[in-house]
Amino acid sequence: MLEIKGLKVDLEEEDKSILKGVDLTVEPGKVHAIMGPNGSGKSTLSYVLSGKDGYTVTGGTATLDGVDLLDMEPEERAAAGLFLAFQYPVEIPGVGNMTFLRTAVNAQRKARGQDELSAGDFLKVVREKAKALQIDADMLKRPVNVGFSGGEKKRNEILQMAMLEPKMCILDETDSGLDVDAMKLVADGVNALRGEGRGFLVITHYQRLLDHIKPDVVHIMSDGRIIKSGGPELALEVEHNGYTDIVAEEA
Amino acid sequence: MALPKVKADATEARLAGLTLPDTVPDARQAALARVSAMGLPHNRDEYWRFTNPRRLVQADAPHAKVPAVQDAPLWDDVDRVKIVFVDGVFDADRSDDPEAAGLEIMQLSDALSTDISWAKDLYGTLETRGQKPVDRPFAALNTAMATEGLAIRATAKAAKPVNLIYDRESEDADPLLHTLIKVDAGAEMTLLETGAGGARFSSVIEIDVGEGGTFHHVRDQGRDHERTVVTHCFAQVASDATFKSFTLSVNGALARNECIIDIRGDDATAHVAGACVGDGKDFHHDDTIFVTHDAVNCESRQVFKKVLRNGATGVFQGKILVKDGAQKTDGYQISQSLMLDDDSQFLAKPELEIYADDVACSHGSTSGAIDETALFYLQSRGVPRKQATDLLTLAFLAESLQEIEDDTLAEALRDRLAGWLERHATV
User: What confidence category does residue B427 fall into, taking pLDDT thresholds of 50, 70 and 90?
Assistant: First the structure.
């Protein structure tokens, strides 16, 4: 599904190399986790895949179902089925959450040549999915993420994911700023979307999110490269021994 | 004090084609004397530093093509009484029966030539008072020369809003309209204005809101690229009364909208707000506001938002004057611009002048580009960049539209703005 080969990326403004040749393949229906110390390039990878400005790709490829992602506008990548759950969801004053969701859903449907959802149909679906994530009517009415708590923002990300039904989901440190209960709620939301051939790339510092979202494969990223891959036991190893040993071992 | 020759000449040239109408001769003579004494402005005058008044001063109206595509009538689903002026001349055939509004409505010329004392008393009175401390010569010119307009009196709660519709058919029409409004104690009315009015349009509205009265004003100056317009609203607000005014403008060679509010009774409220969208080097929009607090425990708000692109210019000059003794004043003023490119400019002059010691007044002014982080967030959810920009632009304007009391009226303006943005070619 998601295939990244030899991806090299520089920061545009600082002329600094962040990703130094990343190879990664996420198969349909699988959950891959990327762990790694601060500054290893995990978030950069998620931004580059989703098309954020400020990065220059200097080598390699990234494709989704064989289609080149790196050539597309962010909205085209979204319509192709890529979704990024932000580490820091953005506040948009003046735009209602519901308007935002409907605009996004219908923009993607339009891009794929599907009919737009009627207001009634949309409302039905959104209410049902919001309920599962304990998102109340008030949160749907308020401006996007404005005045939301950390947990509410992350739940709102998962609601967007549930509404947009992407093929490939990237979760960038979705556990940051969450208490245990909130993490469980978010994880349940993610788990409900597993299957149906959907791929996941879960970026995290800590093993605890992976207790709730069980990964098939765990990768360790350091200094812009994936230095080790393995099963879920690799995450436990990190939890016990930290990154230093693995990094030293692979260096 | 003698005027500089260049001003005196320009003023004389502007007045040359006009004759003083017969009605209310004293008020008109006095207004003419004010114009001659002040002279019409040039852009070295402090009050016209950001807006060159040349198009307003020149003897004949600057030629202005009528837009090829006219917008559909606004507020068609609102039950209202329409009074139509075509190039500044009342058109009875296209107008509704004014009786239906539950107000006393007369043509200005009738009100001033019959013995209607309130109209004669009000004519030019608030304008004269509004000339201090800043000269407003175009308003005095209007008082001297205007013949068209209405005299409206609300004696109770009006049944329907009155919609003055200013159609434009001529490329050279240069009308002056003067409207008088008296809201009696406890009475309530809504005035709607739509349309550009003329190739060069001058409007003065004098509004007297009595004790506990309510006056709502919502204005859409249209999307008209070449027109020139100068408007003045002079309001006096009595105790417990409410005055609220909102203006939407899209494009136009020059618009100068002045609103002069005099809060004279305790516990009164006065809000004035505006949204404008300007596109192109030929766009110049100026909101000039002067709110005077001369009573205790009153609240005033000024909320102005401008979206500018392709070299457009937006101006805001807003002042809150709190007089000695106007304690417990709550004054608020915000002016913000959203610049969609590097070529546009926003010039703001926010002012507070406070002589009372127990007040809460604040003002702010910002200029900024579109929020790239929000833009990327929307795009990452599949919203195309152009659509995302429009959504953020509307969100920026939303705060000013929230100042409109009636949601139905506001919603129609929101839809209209969305339509304009959607049709606009991608920049």
Answer: very low
Classify B19 as helix, strand or coil. coil
CA distance B396 to B277: 11
Kindly report, residue by residue over B387-414, the tens digit of the pLDDT: 999 999 999 999 899 999 999 999 999 9
Within an 8 Å CB–CB cutoff, is residue B157 touching chain A?
A: no
CA distance A73 to B151: 57
Hey, is B422 helix, strand or coil?
helix
B93 domain-assigned: yes
Residue B308 lies in a domain: yes
**Domain contains B16:** yes
Instruction: Count up the domains in chain B and report the number.
Output: 1
The single residue listed with the structure tokens 């703001």 is B348
ipTM computed for the complex: 0.95
Question: Does residue B289 lie in a domain region?
Answer: yes
Q: In this predicted structure, what is the pLDDT of residue B425? A: 45
The domain in which residue B151 lies consists of 5-370
> In this complex, is the C-beta atom of B69 within 8 Å of any C-beta atom belonging to chain A?
no
Locus of tokens 């240069």: B174
- The pLDDT tens digits for B337-386 are 999 999 999 999 999 999 999 999 999 999 999 999 999 999 999 999 99
Kind and range of the H or E run holding A199: strand A199-204
The answer to whether B382 contacts chain A (CB < 8 Å) is yes
Interchain contact, B381 vs A86, CB within 8 Å: no
CB contact under 8 A, A84 and B372: no
Residue A160: which pLDDT band, with cuts at 50, 70 and 90? very high
Question: Is the CB of residue A13 less than 8 Å away from at least one CB of chain B?
Answer: no
Stated pTM of the model: 0.90
* C-alpha distance from B381 to closest chain A C-alpha (Å): 6
